[in-house]
Design brief:
The protein is of the alpha+beta class and 183 residues long. The protein is built from eight helices and five strands, in the order E-E-H-H-E-H-H-H-E-E-H-H-H. A three-stranded antiparallel sheet has the order 3-5-4.
């Protein structure tokens, strides 16, 4: 007796009914992470609009959800559509939002104001740290964060006369004006 009883056909000991079920389920995309949703919005809507020199683009959550073949992931799509990370990566700003009071529904419509020059990280000189494209561990969020934050203090230290001058000044003022010498 097999998983569906004696009425199922088996090939090489595998129930065909179970095989068809597993294959059909594995072909469905039931979930998508935020990165996939952001990439879809960017490549399907925002980059083509930039190429057409359009300054406003309107995107509907239900369309994204359907195009990605998702199931029960509308809140995730809505959250990504409103995220600051999408704005930064795609070089857009949320111009307006319309939708249900909860802000999480297939009818949520977000209008983006598109920067025609592209994302700020694509422009030289605006990003603090240089981010290698082939570094080991770049898929880890903390590694990407390290490279994004690297070099942020450069301007601060330059204004103080360099890193050594800043450190010397900080050490001199560490104990305050009433410090006692240890001699």
């Amino acid at each position: 007796m097999g998983c569906a009883g004696e009425y199922t056909k088996k090939v090489d000991g595998v129930c065909l009914l179970c095989y068809v079920y597993v294959v059909s389920i594995s072909n469905l995309q039931l979930t998508a992470d935020a990165r996939t949703i952001r990439e879809h919005i960017r490549t399907r809507y925002l980059e083509p609009a930039r190429l057409r020199r359009e300054t406003l683009v309107t995107v509907r959550a239900g369309d994204i959800h359907r195009e990605l073949g998702l199931r029960n992931r509308v809140p995730n799509v809505c959250q990504v559509m409103e995220s600051k990370l999408l704005e930064k990566e795609a070089g857009v700003k949320v111009s307006s939002k319309q939708g249900p009071p909860s802000g999480r529904g297939t009818t949520l419509t977000v209008t983006y104001s598109v920067d025609l020059e592209g994302p700020s990280e694509a422009r030289p000189g605006e990003q603090h740290g240089s981010m290698p494209t082939h570094a080991v561990g770049m898929e880890q969020p903390w590694v990407r964060l390290f490279y994004e934050l690297r070099g942020m203090g450069k301007d601060l230290f330059a204004a103080e006369g360099g890193g050594e001058a800043w450190l010397t000044k900080e050490r001199a003022n560490f104990y305050g004006p009433d410090k006692k010498d240890l001699e």
